[in-house]
User: Fold this.
Amino acid sequence: DISVWGIGDYVSSEAIRGMLLIRESLPKIKMRFVGAMILSHDAFGLADDKMTQKRFNDLAQKRPVVATFHGYESTIRSIFTTYTDVRKIKLSAYQEKGTTTTPLLLQILNRTDRFSVAISILESVHADNKISVEEAEKLKIKLLAMQAEAANHANKYGYDKA
Assistant:
């Protein structure tokens, strides 16, 4: 139903945790995780061993794509443009938000956290008519509450809730 891409170590971990949040509430949703750790100019992979268009198509499988990246949005947008119409990808990347804070709170401020990924998955599968409006809205409210609770805990205590 959806392909979730994590591009970078922390955001990959958050993407997987976001998928687990969706799986808890919507086990019928089929998700594929794609982790990308090596980027080169306008491509996934090394300069002399770039991902082919066929491989990209195999990984994306004409599904909606949710991607989260550990760098600037313009960088990853240019790489995705090499392979597909970037408007088809729900992309989140760092936006220069945050200061010296906890790891999860930094992700929340930049919308690259597990809750934001889960909401992006939810919005994509809802747009593809895989779940009802009511089901999507109910889960989104729950995810936003969980996100707020995690942010409040980090702000209050100075560390992330386990």
